Amino acid sequence: MANAEYRQVPVHDKPCRDAPGDGQELLARPVGHRRCIAHALGTNKAALVNSVLLVVHVVVVVMFVLGLRPTCNDLLYSPLSRIVSHEVRPFITDEDHLWTGPPNPVVEENWHQMLLGFDVRVTEDELKRLGRLDKAVRLNDERGGYVALINVFHELHCLKLIRWSLYPDHFYPNSTAAETAERERHRDHCLNYVRQSAMCHADVGLSTWHWRPNDSMPHADMMPHTCRAWAAIDDWAKDRRVDMYQPGLLVHPQFGAEFPAGGGANEDDGGS
Q1: Fewest CB atoms within 10 Å of the CB: 1, 30, 34, 217?
Q2: Is residue 227 part of a domain?
Q3: Residue 264 covered by a domain
Q4: Rounded Cα gap, residues 228 and 82, in angstroms
């Protein structure tokens, strides 16, 4: 081996080193460095492919994890979920007179119209998805289906009943002691129901406080709220509306028609 002849390795046969710099620098090198360029570009391409694969992997994992987290609409089925949208809306305080105050025709009509969708018709398939088909009350008419109540209308009904309890002489004249006791029980139920509903929805938006020039007390500076768009929900409920007190609409399998002569409970009990 000592007498072996050695030859100079051509430039293009020399091993390549990973040179610093970007692709533009590599492309500017002499032709003799083509193999080095190819090696460097191949290394960069491999690194790029690995980076892309890593990003894709991370995205897939994140989407999978988020997919496992239930959203509000996933926790419990509702046929209204598909029409629900959200909007940012301020709470309007200068319309209090339309909903509050002593009894008057305008206020009573507003509450009446708001609660028209209190009882609604749902289909057999919708009840199956709720897991309530075996317990539901069937509607005894040509359209069929079952009677249901959208929870927000229960909340509104409770607020209406609480308001009525503020004016018992107007809304409940000549009540007996037993009737008064029952209304008080219903009122307390409604107070607790509204409490639970507020905690259930738990609006986590923030409002701040501000100073007024001529007042030493801070005043609340209310922020808008993220709300479900009411119009679509109200329209859906009114389209499905049923009158539970229609004669013969509700028929108990053992006791027969619940309201054979129509009528039924007062507005504060039925919420309509």
Answers
A1: 1
A2: yes
A3: yes
A4: 12
